[in-house]
Amino acid sequence: MNDDATSHPGPLRGLVPYVVREPRPFALVLVAGILAAAAPIAVAGLGAALVGRTVEQGRTGGTTGLTALLIAAAAGAAVSAWWQSDVSHDWAFRLLRTLRMSLFDGLARAVPGRVFGKRTGDLTAAAVSDVNTTELFFAHTAGDYVGTVLVSAVAVAVIAALSAPAALVTLAVMVLVAVVPYVLARRAGAQGRILREQSAVLGSEVVDGLQGLRELAVFGQGRAYLERLLRHTDEQHRTRMRYAGRAGLEQAVTSLLLGGGAVAALLAVADQVRTGGLEPAVAPVVVVLAIASLGPVAAVSATARTLGDVRAAASRVLAIIDHPAHVDSHGTIAASGDGRAHVRFSNVHFGYDAGTPVLRGATFDVAPGETVALVGRSGAGKTTCVNLLLRFWDPQAGSITVDGTDLRSFAVEGLHSLISVVPQDVYLFNTTVRENIRLSRPDAGDPEVESAARLATAHDFVTDLADGYDTACGEGGAQLSGGQRQRVAIARALLTRTPIIVMDEAVSNLDAESERALHEALVAVRRDHTMLVVAHRLSTIRTADRVVLLDDGRVVDSGPHEEMLSRCAAYRDLLAAQYPQA
């Protein structure tokens, strides 16, 4: 992920399309930002004018109108501050929702090729922490910057009408204060990028430790893990100190400029009063306006000091969002789940890495209503065939067709109505058993869910749970055993009613009795589905209609189990090595 994070050009520019996507709320944010920046300056100016008039006249009489204006301006300042905070944060958090949805769309397009090799904590940081960090840009940058520029321009014009020297001093200080963060922008960006990467690594280490607490305890590696965690924490601490040092330097320079500007404006006004170029009663107004007008610029400068972190976070998020789809997504044919399907692999070549082929011209088919078992030694290409059928990747040569139509011609998002899968590593969400089964068909009724569970031999154990189908599975299905998780996953696949069912070692965690019951239950189901099974158990191989033997990415032979035993020496050798009892 680090490479991607550094490759996205102009990350803040990449956020602009999200800003302009909702012009009406953005317009409200701009108006609120202008009012919030202008109101305090108006209060300060009116207050100074009131003091000046009182000093000039030596009494408070005749200032009723000015006093009323001051009170109204103070109330307006309070209301505008509240309104600006409300509309900007409401808008920002809605944009964060859109941004997070775009990020998950990007991950979905890239699954699983881009996700393989990425640590869970790294992806979690992008989806949560990095997206949240962009809130600073949406809520405190876009509207504030526009409001500050407009209000500052008006303030300088008003000051210039009263005192040209004070206006020049104010304008010069504004420019210098605004420039300071950009002088150090490159350093801030580099520090922010390192900080984001270290935060992702630290988060990944924490996730690893939480998920592996049992292993750490069993093997006595808790202390070693804590030391590794502390090293990452110390590295991040040093980076944060450098980040804080740079931000502190910017703040010190900004404070020096603001203080110097206030003194310079005061001296310029005093000189004008001394030479008769400015009325004494007007002098407080000019000085206060000059100082107050620097406030919005100082606030924006403070925000700009944190933009290095925002740029780094935005770059990591946009790198995922803008990453091209992992497979060609230009297919337009809507996949139909009606009827049965004929699957054919034709001279398929594929490798995950260039120069390392996994499949070398694999050719086989699965007829409608047929169950085919893929067998072979580890690394032969069995799971790769499943991955290609699910379009996690596309073949580099050859084709995979369903009823004569190349998979690449189907719309990717519609494949779930054509193919369902029981994966080797089952993941259950931290919700009820019922909702985990219903994941494949959210509109399924409770009777359909229970019927699928019965077919998967899951109903009996589910009803024995404390809350039956409403029992929470825990994170990743931690509250269930491996065999129970697999049966829930099988029920989930059966609920879809897709014509093609893929099972990748789907019975590996079942005991012999549960496996036998499942095979018996699936007899009727198999007649109505095209089933491709990655088989690692002899019982699964024997119950298949046909066996396809893969070796080094090639189909060596295929046929019914008994025929393969009699004619294929490679098949007999495989069974002898993996299933001595055969």
UniProtKB/TrEMBL annotation:
GO biological process: cell redox homeostasis; glutathione transmembrane transport
UniProt keywords, alphabetically: ATP-binding, Cell membrane, Membrane, Nucleotide-binding, Transmembrane, Transmembrane helix, Transport
Keyword Cell membrane: yes
Subcellular location: Cell membrane
Protein known as: Thiol reductant ABC exporter subunit CydC
Species name: Micromonospora craniellae
SUPFAM superfamilies in alphabetical order: ABC transporter transmembrane region, P-loop containing nucleoside triphosphate hydrolases
Residue ranges crossing the lipid bilayer per the database entry: 26-51, 63-83, 153-184, 248-269, 281-302
Organism lineage string: Bacteria, Bacillati, Actinomycetota, Actinomycetes, Micromonosporales
Ranges of residues in domain ABC transporter: 343-577
Bilayer disposition of the protein: Multi-pass membrane protein
Gene Ontology CC terms, in alphabetical order: plasma membrane
GO molecular function, one term: ATP hydrolysis activity
InterPro entries cross-referenced by the UniProt entry: AAA+_ATPase, ABC1_TM_dom, ABC1_TM_sf, ABC_CydC/D, ABC_transporter-like_ATP-bd, ABC_transporter-like_CS, P-loop_NTPase, Type_1_exporter
Domain ABC transmembrane type-1: 27-309
Family statement drawn from the similarity comment of this UniProt entry: Belongs to the ABC transporter superfamily. Lipid exporter (TC 3.A.1.106) family.
Predominant location: membrane
